[in-house]
């Protein structure tokens, strides 16, 4: 690979040998070309970052905005209406002064105390899902049996949405994260359905509040301000997208990584106290996290010694940064005892994921109960035969076939 960033334009996302392996270009890019030219699925040009320190710098710098609806920003998808990143109204809620107010209101529902109160219900749900999977017999798709239904149930519980509507939520979530999987007509129709559904749900909660986030946000006040109905809808949308699809896919990838090398699973069976650090290491080691975090430059900047002009769209490859040898000793090895582990799976800076405590708890709950219930769990297919999920901004697997 050339050392000159202007010599080569790479198609993004970069292809990888398998669903669990990283693109071989990452090592070379971090070493020789930390600010690389890429072409997105839309055909637009952007710059990709792969080094840990550079990405932390960008995610913490207010000059790099999340608003990809701005004039000159690259489109992440070929769809005419753009992706979740290009929604100007949603971007306004998570940018500037209003963002901090919104974050304070929402964060009250993602504290350790609040998540602990949900713990027993989570364990009950996972046990029920595992019961159903075992009853149907092996081989089973762990992703379809546990990975996908569990997080969307948690989101239903959090938002006060009836469990019977979880399939609708899952479909709406997928369309909001589409790069190439859905047509613009399908995306527009799904977003309209979601907006209508949430508008009716908010009205219902206003009349009959319950112990859920929407009911709480209808009454809570921060610095004299309440969330508008539009902001409530975008809050629900953000929680759905971040809390369902990413966690569902991570459950599948985490289990695939741990079962791909039997020594890892046996290590956890021998020492279940490693569940917490194992989850963190799975988040770091994940080579298939998806598109990454895009940012748009409103001012000229210098990154890794390169002058990057205002109007540039940057793509922060979190997975590549989490494999950076400068930040992690033996970065290419999965170490279930690794600590500290300051990975970037949940972003960094003022826009880091508000639901990361919930996501961690969900992952730990699934892993703990599977270790306890199914100690003989194993992949039913070779690791390199696991099918990669494509067409969405979030990376994942189509299925994880297991036996026990």
How would you explain this protein's 3D organization?
With about 400 residues, the protein is of the alpha+beta class. The chain has a single domain (about 10-404), classed as Cytochrome p450, CATH 1.10.630. About 45% of the residues lie in helices and about 10% in strands. It contains 15 helices and 13 strands. A six-stranded mixed β-sheet has the order 1-2-3-9-6-4. A three-stranded antiparallel β-sheet has the order 5-13-10. Helix 5 (about 110-135) runs parallel beside helix 15 (about 355-375). The protein is globular and about 55 Å long. It starts with 8 loop residues before the first strand and ends with a strand. The model is unreliable at about 1-5 (pLDDT under 50).
Low confidence ranges: 1-6
CATH class category: Mainly Alpha
Overall domain count:
1
Q: Helix content range of the residues, please? A: 40-55%
Mean pLDDT: 90
Q: Calculate the terminal CA-CA distance, rounded to whole Å.
A: 44 Å
CATH architecture: Orthogonal Bundle
Biggest beta sheet attributes: 6 strands, mixed
- Tell me the strand order in the biggest sheet: 1-2-3-9-6-4
Order of helices and strands: EHEEHEHHHEHHHHHHHHEEEEHHEEEE
């Amino acid at each position: 690979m050339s050392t000159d960033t202007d010599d080569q334009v790479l198609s993004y996302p970069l292809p990888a040998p398998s669903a669990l392996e990283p693109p071989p270009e990452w090592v070379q890019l971090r070493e020789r070309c930390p600010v690389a030219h890429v072409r997105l699925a839309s055909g637009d040009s952007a710059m990709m970052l792969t080094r840990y320190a550079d990405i932390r710098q960008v995610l913490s710098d207010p000059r790099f905005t999340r608003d990809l609806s701005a004039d000159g920003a690259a489109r992440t998808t070929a769809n005419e209406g753009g992706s979740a990143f290009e929604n100007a109204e949603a971007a306004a809620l998570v940018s500037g002064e209003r963002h901090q107010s919104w974050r304070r209101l929402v964060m009250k529902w993602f504290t350790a105390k609040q998540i602990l109160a949900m713990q027993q219900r989570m364990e009950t749900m996972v046990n029920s899902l595992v019961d159903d999977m075992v009853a149907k017999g092996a081989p089973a798709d762990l992703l379809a049996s546990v990975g996908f239904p569990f997080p969307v149930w948690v989101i239903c519980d959090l938002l006060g949405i009836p469990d019977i509507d979880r399939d609708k939520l899952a479909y709406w979530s997928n369309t909001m994260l589409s790069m190439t999987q859905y047509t613009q007509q399908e995306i527009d129709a799904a977003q309209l359905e979601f907006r209508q559904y949430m508008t009716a749900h908010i009205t219902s909660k206003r009349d009959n509040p319950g112990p859920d986030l929407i009911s709480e946000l209808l009454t809570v006040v921060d610095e004299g301000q309440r969330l508008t109905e539009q902001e409530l809808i975008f809050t629900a949308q953000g929680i759905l997208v971040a809390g369902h699809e990413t966690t569902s896919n991570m459950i599948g990838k985490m289990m695939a990584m741990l079962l791909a090398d039997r020594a890892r699973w046996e290590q956890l069976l021998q020492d279940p106290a490693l569940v917490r650090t194992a989850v963190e290491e799975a988040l770091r080691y994940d080579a298939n996290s998806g598109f990454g975090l895009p940012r748009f430059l409103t001012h000229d900047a210098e990154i890794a010694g390169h002058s990057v002009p205002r109007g540039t769209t940057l793509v922060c490859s979190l997975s590549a940064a989490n494999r950076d040898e400068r930040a992690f000793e033996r970065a290419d090895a999965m170490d279930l005892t690794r600590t500290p582990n300051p990975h970037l799976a949940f972003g960094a800076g003022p826009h880091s994921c508000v639901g990361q405590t919930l996501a961690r708890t969900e992952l730990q709950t699934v892993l703990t109960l599977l270790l306890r219930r199914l100690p003989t769990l194993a992949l039913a297919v070779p690791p390199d035969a696991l099918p990669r999920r494509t067409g969405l901004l979030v990376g994942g697997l189509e299925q994880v076939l297991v036996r026990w």
